[in-house]
Design brief:
heterodimer, A: 350 residues, mainly alpha, MetI-like fold, 2 domains, B: 297 residues, alpha/beta, Rossmann fold, six-stranded mixed β-sheet, four-stranded antiparallel β-sheet, 13 helices, 23% strand, disordered N terminus
C-alpha cells in the first residue's frame, strides 16, 4: 500500500483565496471613499446620506466585480446578498445601540445596595448608595411566578387540545388564542381591575398583578406550544397508540417529552413577554416602594413600575436609578434566554 | 386505564417470565416450546378478517377482504402501491380509525371475538396485536432500554423483572449483542436498521399474539433487511406475523402464506391467497402471475 499519511492533507479548495479577499476588501474601501466623495461634492448631508450612498455604491461595485469575474448569475446573486447583509445590519443597529446606551447609563446607578434595600425610607433626591430595588426584584419575581403557575398548565393544555385531542372547538379556540395574543396589555389590567379588584378585593395586590400578567402569558405559551407540538412527527403518536397506550398516556409519555425543549422555549417566551409589562401592574398591583413578600395583601412593587416611577421624579439620582433598573431587568431576561437555550439544547449533544 | 388483574394473556406472560431462567436464550426457547405444545391453541387460526371494507371519506379503498392468519405462521401481503395493503393491516389492530375520515365494515376476529364489538377496550386489542411501522420511529426522548419498555409504561403494566424482559426482547429482535453496552444511549443514536429492530423489540415487550409489519424494511439497506428477516423467522414460531412488503424476494424468503392485493383504479381487492411457494410458482390467477414475474406493478 502507498503511504498516504503524508501525501494528502485536508483542505478547503472552495474557500476564498487571499486575492479574492483583498478584492472584496477593496470593493468596500472603494465604496466608502466613493460615498465620502459623493456626499462632500453634492447637497447630501448627514450620517444617513453616507450610509445610503455607501449601500448603493457597494451594490454597483459588487455587481460589476462579480459580473466581470464570474458572470451575470453570480452578479445578480451578489445584489441579493448585499440586501440580506444590509437587513442584518439594520436589525442589529437599534439592538446594539439600545444595549450600549443602557449599559452606559445604567452603570452609574449600579450599586450593590440596589439588591439589598428598598425605597421605603428614601426619596428621589437621596444619593445612589442609599435605597434600592429589592422590592421591585422580589415583586416582579413573585408576580411573574404567579402568572407562570397559572399560565403554564392552561397554556400547555390548550396547545394539547388544539394539536392532539382536537374537536369541534379547535377552530374557535385557535382563533380566540390568536386574538388574545394581540390584546393590549392595559386591557388585561383593566379586566382584572373591573372584574376582581373593584367588586371583590377592593385593594390592589401582587396576586392581582400576577392574574393580569397571566392573561397576557397564556396566549403566548399556548401558541408557541402549539407550534412546537405540531412539529412532533405523527409517527410517534401512532407508535404510542399501537403499543397499547391510551391517548392521554401517549401524549404525556411520548409527545410532551419529545417536545420538552420546545416547550421550555415557550415558557421562557411567555416569561419574557410579561417581565417588562408596566400598564397592567400600574393599575392592579399598587406599586409600592416597600419590600412586600405577601402577594395577597398590600401594594407590590415591580421592575417596570420602579423604572417608570423613578423616571417621572426627574432628579439626577432617580434617573440614574431608573437606568440601573432597566439594565438589571435586561440582564435578567438575557440570563433567562441563555438558560432556556442551554436547557433546550442539551439533547442534540448526546 | 388497564387493570393488570383482568389482563389474562399479559398476566400469563409475566408469570412465565418469573419462572423461566434468567438466561434469555433459554427463555425464548421455553416460550417457543410452550406455544408449540399441541392443544394450547397455538396452531389454530390466530386472526380472522371477514368481509373487510374500508373507506377514507366517501372513497372505498378496500372491498370485501376475507383472510385467515394462522398462529405460528408468517403471511406476506404483496401488491402494487395504493392497493390498500397498509390500510388492511391497520384495520387489524384498529389503527385505521386513527385517521380522520376513516370508516370500515366487516369483522376482525381475534381468538374468535370481534375486535370491533362495541364495548371492546381498544388499548387491549393493540396490546395483543402489535405493529411495526414503515419508518423506524423510536421515541426520541427515551433511551434504548426505555424505548423497549415503553409499552409497559404506556399501558401501565407491571412486570417482575424488567431487566430480563429487556434482554429477552432485544435478543429476540436480534439487537442485543449490538446494544448491550449502551442501553442508556438515546434510541436516535442507532443506525436505521438498528432503530427498526429496536422498534420490533419495543412491540415484543408487551407480548403481542399477532405482529403486523408495514413494509418494515423499505427504508433499510440489504444488510439490515437480512437481519430483520432473520428476526421474523425467529419470531414466527411463537406468534402470528403479517407483513406488508413491496419486495417479492422478501415475501418468498420469509412467509408461509402470501396474499396478493390489487386495485384497478377502484377499491383494492384480494386477488389470491395461498401457500407462498404456490403463489410464486403456480399462481391460479393470471394477474398474480404477471405481478410476481415482474410483468407489471
Amino acid at each position: 500500500m502507498i503511504n498516504s499519511k503524508v501525501a494528502v492533507k485536508p483542505g478547503k479548495p472552495w474557500a476564498a483565496t487571499p486575492r479574492e479577499r483583498a478584492l472584496d476588501l477593496g470593493a468596500i474601501l472603494l465604496a466608502a471613499v466613493g460615498s465620502f466623495a459623493l456626499v462632500a461634492l453634492s447637497e447630501l448631508k448627514g450620517k444617513l446620506a453616507y450610509a445610503g450612498v455607501f449601500f448603493l455604491l457597494i451594490i454597483v461595485i459588487n455587481f460589476i466585480h462579480n459580473y466581470l469575474s464570474r458572470g451575470i448569475a453570480t452578479a445578480k446573486d451578489s445584489i441579493a446578498s448585499t440586501f440580506a447583509v444590509a437587513g442584518v445590519l439594520i436589525t442589529l443597529l437599534p439592538i446594539t445601540s439600545i444595549m450600549f446606551s443602557i449599559f452606559e447609563r445604567g452603570k452609574t446607578g449600579f450599586k450593590l445596595n440596589l439588591f439589598t434595600s428598598d425605597m421605603k425610607l428614601n426619596g428621589p433626591n437621596d444619593p445612589l448608595n442609599q435605597g434600592g430595588l429589592l422590592h421591585a426584584l422580589t415583586g416582579s419575581g413573585i408576580m411573574v411566578g404567579i402568572a407562570l403557575i397559572i399560565s403554564l398548565p392552561i397554556g400547555i393544555l390548550t396547545a394539547i387540545y388544539l394539536t392532539e385531542i382536537k374537536g369541534f372547538f379547535t377552530r374557535p379556540i385557535r382563533f380566540l388564542v390568536q386574538a388574545m395574543s394581540g390584546v393590549p396589555s392595559i386591557v388585561a389590567g383593566l379586566f382584572i381591575l373591573s372584574a376582581i379588584v373593584f367588586p371583590i378585593t377592593k385593594t390592589p395586590s401582587g396576586l392581582m398583578g400576577g392574574l393580569a400578567l397571566s392573561i397576557l402569558m397564556i396566549p403566548t405559551i399556548a401558541r408557541t406550544s402549539e407550534e412546537v407540538l405540531l412539529l412532533i412527527p405523527p409517527d410517534l403518536r401512532e407508535a404510542g397508540i399501537a403499543l397499547g397506550g391510551t391517548q392521554w398516556r401517549t401524549i404525556s409519555q411520548i409527545v410532551v417529552p419529545a417536545a420538552k425543549s420546545g416547550l421550555m422555549t415557550a415558557i421562557i417566551l411567555g416569561v419574557a413577554r410579561v417581565a417588562g409589562e408596566t400598564a397592567p401592574l400600574v393599575l392592579v398591583s399598587g406599586g409600592g416602594d416597600a419590600l412586600n413578600l405577601n402577594p395577597t395583601s398590600g401594594p407590590m412593587g415591580s421592575f417596570p413600575f420602579y423604572i417608570w416611577k423613578s423616571f417621572t421624579f426627574g432628579t439626577t439620582e432617580s434617573i440614574a436609578r431608573a437606568w440601573a433598573g432597566i439594565f438589571i431587568l435586561l440582564v435578567l431576561i438575557f440570563i433567562l434566554f441563555i438558560a432556556a437555550r442551554l436547557l433546550g439544547g442539551d439533547r442534540k449533544k448526546k | 386505564m388497564i387493570n393488570p388483574e383482568d389482563q389474562d394473556p399479559l398476566d400469563k406472560g409475566s408469570e412465565k417470565m418469573e419462572t423461566t431462567t434468567p438466561s434469555s436464550l433459554s427463555s425464548v426457547a421455553a416460550n417457543a416450546a410452550a406455544k408449540k405444545k399441541p392443544g394450547s391453541g397455538a396452531l389454530g387460526v390466530g386472526l380472522e378478517a371477514r368481509g373487510i371494507h374500508a373507506w377514507f371519506g366517501d372513497k372505498l379503498v378496500l372491498q370485501n377482504i376475507s383472510l385467515d392468519f394462522w398462529s405460528g405462521t408468517v403471511t406476506a401481503l404483496i401488491g402494487p402501491s395504493g392497493c390498500g395493503k397498509s390500510t388492511f393491516i391497520r384495520t387489524l389492530n384498529r389503527m385505521h380509525e386513527f385517521i380522520p375520515g376513516a370508516a370500515m365494515a366487516g369483522e376482525v376476529l381475534l381468538n374468535g371475538k370481534d375486535i370491533y364489538e362495541s364495548g371492546t377496550d381498544v388499548t387491549k386489542i393493540r396490546l395483543k396485536v402489535g405493529m411495526v411501522f414503515q419508518k423506524p420511529n423510536p421515541f426520541p426522548s427515551m433511551t434504548i432500554a426505555d424505548n423497549v419498555l415503553a409499552g409497559l409504561k404506556l399501558a401501565q403494566l407491571k412486570v417482575a423483572n424488567k431487566d430480563d424482559l429487556l434482554e429477552e426482547c432485544l435478543v429476540r429482535a436480534g439487537l442485543w449483542s449490538e446494544v448491550k453496552d449502551r442501553l442508556s444511549a438515546y434510541g436516535g443514536s442507532l443506525s436505521g436498521g438498528q432503530q427498526q429492530r429496536l422498534c420490533i423489540a419495543r412491540s415484543l415487550a408487551v407480548r403481542p399474539e399477532v405482529l403486523l409489519m408495514d413494509e418494515p424494511c423499505s427504508a433499510l439497506d440489504p444488510g439490515s433487511t437480512l437481519k430483520i428477516e432473520e428476526t421474523i423467522s425467529e419470531l414466527s414460531s411463537s406468534m402470528t406475523i403479517i407483513i406488508v412488503t413491496h419486495n417479492m424476494q422478501q415475501a418468498a424468503r420469509v412467509s408461509d402464506y402470501t396474499g396478493f392485493f390489487l386495485s384497478d383504479g377502484g377499491p383494492g381487492e384480494l386477488v389470491e391467497v395461498g401457500p407462498t411457494s404456490e403463489i410464486f410458482s403456480r399462481p391460479k390467477d393470471i394477474r398474480t402471475e404477471n405481478y410476481v414475474t415482474g410483468r407489471f406493478g
